[in-house]
Amino acid sequence: MEISNLPISPSIRSKLLSKGYTSLSSLSSISPSFLAQELSVKLEEAVEVLRAVSDTTTSKSAHTPNGIIPGAVTAWDMLSEEQMQRHISTGCEDLDAILGGGIHCKEVTEVGGVPGIGKTQLGIQLAVNVQIPVEYGGLGGKAVYIDTEGSFMAERAYQIAEGCIYDILDKFPSNSREFLSCKERLQVNNFLAGIFYFRICSYTEQIAVINYLENFLTEHGDVKLVIIDSVTFHFRQDFDDLAQRTRVLGGLSLRLMKLSKMFNLAVVLLNQVTTKFTDGSFQLTLALGDSWSHSCTNRIILHWNGNERCAYIEKSPSVPSASAPYLVTGKGIRGINSNFKRARIM
Amino acid sequence: MANKLINQMGLPPSLSHVFSARNILTAKDALSLPEIDLMALLDIDIDLVRAAVARISEATCPPFQTGLALLEEKMKSGGHLSTFLPGLDIALCGGIPFGALTELVGPSGIGKTQFCLKLALLAALPECYGGLNGQVIYIDTESKFSSRRMIEIGEGSFPQIFRLQGLAQKMAGRIIVTRPTSISEFNDSLQQMKLTLLQNEVKLLIVDSIAALVSWDNEKGIISSRQSPVRGSLSFLKSIAEFSQVPVVVTNQVRSHSNDDTFHYIFQGHRKDTSNSERSESHLTAALGIQWAHAVTIRLIFEAHSGHRFIKVAKSPISPPVAFPFVVESSGITLLNQEGISVAGSEINAIRCQGWKSFSGIIQQWNQLPSFMQ
User: Fold this and answer.
1) pLDDT tens, residue by residue, B43-63
2) Which of A12, A24, A229, B294 is most deeply buried (CB count within 10 A of its CB)?
3) Is the complex ipTM higher than 0.90?
4) What are the CA-CA distances from residue A54 to residues A25, A57, B336 (Å)?
5) What is the pTM of this model?
6) Which family does it belong to (chain B) (predicted)?
7) Residues of B30-51 as b/e, b for ≥16 C-beta within 10 angstroms?
8) Are B345 and A116 an interchain contact pair (Cβ–Cβ within 8 Å)?
9) Does the distance separating the beta carbons of B66 and A192 come in below 8 Å?
10) Signed CA dihedral, B344, B345, B348, B350: sign only
């Protein structure tokens, strides 16, 4: 490995190279004070350089239980871990079925669609469903809702939470003692209090909040879902340099993926649509460009199929492409076949 | 928040000097660059860069609220401007929401300006009569504002109020009309408004119509790209709505819907929709495109078919897709059916314009002087 790959500042790197230190082994047995004298830098900076060198070399030769690469796990361990994972229900059984149970934790899912198709509705539904207690089949976690467009309406969240609780109590009418204590937790106000809402007014704030999330999530360890509604809005309006935009977005998506793995939560990004000229005609496609489309693990497109709303899984590493119809009702997102008594179909 | 200065964020002085030496003065400058680029630009260690970016992000990030706190705040401040059309108010959970962009779109002459005139009056009314007791800013880009018509609407809807001495003058005095003739004038008015809005005097902002701005843009020969000045005005409008928490109502025009507009996703394949060719003559679509359609929070479509006019709630986070038939009378817009007709599927987004007489013929009947002026 070369000096040029070390994470040190360019001026120190150029000094090292000009003094003839081109490989890591040449630095392996030098004391900090000698290096400081050689490069005419401060002692602390020389210590930093040597520390960076030793970090890179030790990570290469560390021995781990799995032998080959530090930090890796075997596929078998991952399988058992995945089977124990709970998924976040979307409210529509058909959609949950084609997703393999629901929205996966430790993954970034992108949901896109034309205006008015129900992206924000799905976002709010997920923010409510993630809070369903474990005893009732949910994750019992909280949600972070990052709103860039101002579409989150607290009254609608109230309606959806109410509908969710009503359906749970309908499905689990048991009055046994285990359920009694969680029944107390099934209050609409508790569900609303479990949604942490950030209102973002520019792309700078959007980048800032994603950077800040690491600290926030360390403090609030029970967050199991992060929703960004929508990730596109500010990046479409105010960013002038498209190449820079692609790089910044790439950095954002990497950070979000890292957060989802570190804190074992699901990240859902809502995206807008744009038109693209392919195959001789204009086609609808999700916004932010081709590079962005690689960044997310899963991709769901909400679209109109005649007079029905449909969700189509365009990209997923674990489930096949499939489509499922869904409804947006007064109680939230529901499936076509849900026949609860007071459902007011929209 | 984006323009927060780095030297006020509590970074160690040596670090903030390095930032300002390289002309990275605001949070926006620092956060727009990936960390590696920052490290190369500032010539400091990656760990220091990471710590600095983390500190800047923490300082720039807006504070969070819980959903419960949001709801309680909404309950306290009312949160809606009632339209005095019961069916529509119920569908919108109270009326035109504060802090969000509501769009009225429809063919010309269908009643959008009438709706706006009535809204302007309602916002100016004292609270005891159900209004917001505040000033109204009416940005009239097509010279359609008619104060005589507005007083007439007032007389028709609230006769007992308007008969009171001087109240009509007081109401009309609260409505400020401005008529910009270019985008720069429009932007200037918005900037000035920013200050007045903050002082909590203005309770409603109406822009009638926004599509005219785009036609000015095109007249000057600027090809409307993503970075055209109009886009800037539109996003500025949205941010004004957000931080001042006033309702912002915007009217939009329609343009004809060519078959190319029926876009599909790649996975849907190409469809030959022969049924669409009959509808295409009277099929319209909102101007300003799909990016604008994403930006508005609530979209009310005004359309006409089967001999009636309808207000459709096409896009709203809190309402089901319903259509209300309406007529325009001397007292403004009245709904014929308070329950609303449920509209299934993508029909809710269609704008039709068939089978009704042009509105301008009807306005001839209202050329009599309102009673208070006789």
Assistant:
1) 888 888 888 888 888 888 888
2) A229
3) no
4) 10, 5, 79
5) 0.82
6) Belongs to the RecA family. RAD51 subfamily.
7) bbbbbeeebbebbebbbebbee
8) no
9) yes
10) negative
